[in-house]
C-alpha cells in the first residue's frame, strides 16, 4: 500500500503541533511548511517585552518541527504577501488584520507546494469558533473553495464537526481518530497534548503566516481603500 503524504501548516503553536501529531500517528508521511512574510519574528517579541524577557528565545516553528521529527520548509513570500495586507478581498478584522485573505493565501501557497512536490493533502490546526473571522464553519468553506484545495484540506482537531474530506473518504486517515474541538477554550487541546506526551509548547496561538504587527507604513492611505491611524496595532495571530 502506498504511503500517503501530507504537508502541515506549522505555526509554532499548540494546535498545528497537535494536528500534525494526530495525522502522523495514522502512518501518514508529514512534512511541515511555514511562510515568512518579513513581519513578525517571535524571538524579537520576547526580547522587547518585559514579561517575556526570561523566556527562551527560539523560532517556535523550527522547534515544533524538531520535536515532531519532521522536515520543515520555510518559504519566503514577502513580495506576494504585500497585496494581501494592502488590499484584502474579504476585508479586515477588528485590528485591520486580513484574517480570511491571509488564510486563503497560505492554503493556496500550500496547495501549489503539494502539487509541485507530489503530496496528497494539507493539514491545518484550525478549530471551529477559535477565530471570529477565519475559523467559522462558513469561512472555512470559503478557504477551501478560494484556495482551490477543496476537500484535500484536513482539519484534524475539528474534522468530526465538518463533512468528511478526501483523505477520510478514501481511508487514508481514520475519521474516528480525529476530533470535534470547537470554541476559544484551550482545555481540550491541553488534555490532548498530555495524552500525546507533549509537555512543552507555545502558550499563545500563532499563525503559519507571520502577520503585520505594530508598524503601519506612513504611506498606507495611498495603497488601500481604508486608511490606518499611525498608532494602530496589528495582531500577530490573524489566522
Notes on the protein architecture:
The protein is α/β, with parallel strands linked by helices and 239 residues long. The chain contains eight helices and five strands. It has helices at 14-24, 42-48, 60-68, 78-86, 99-117, 137-146, 166-169, 187-195; strands at residues 5-9, 29-36, 72-76, 121-123, 153-154. Strands 3-2-1-4-5 form a five-stranded parallel β-sheet, sandwiched between helices. Helix 5 (99-117) crosses helix 6. The longest helix has 19 residues, at 99-117. It is globular, with a radius of gyration of 17 Å.
Q: Key features?
A:
239 residues, alpha/beta, five-stranded parallel β-sheet, 8 helices, globular, disordered C terminus
Strand order of the largest sheet: 3-2-1-4-5
- Could you spell the SSE succession in H and E letters? EHEHHEHHEHEHH
In terms of DSSP E residues, the strand content is 5-15%
The percent of residues in helical segments reads 25-40%
The count of helical stretches stands at: 8
Rg (C-alpha, Å): 17 Å
List the helices and strands and how they pair.
Blueprint: E1 5-9, H1 14-24, E2 29-36, H2 42-48, H3 60-68, E3 72-76, H4 78-86, H5 99-117, E4 121-123, H6 137-146, E5 153-154, H7 166-169, H8 187-195
Parallel strand pairs: 1-2, 1-4, 2-3, 4-5
Helix pairs in contact: 5-6
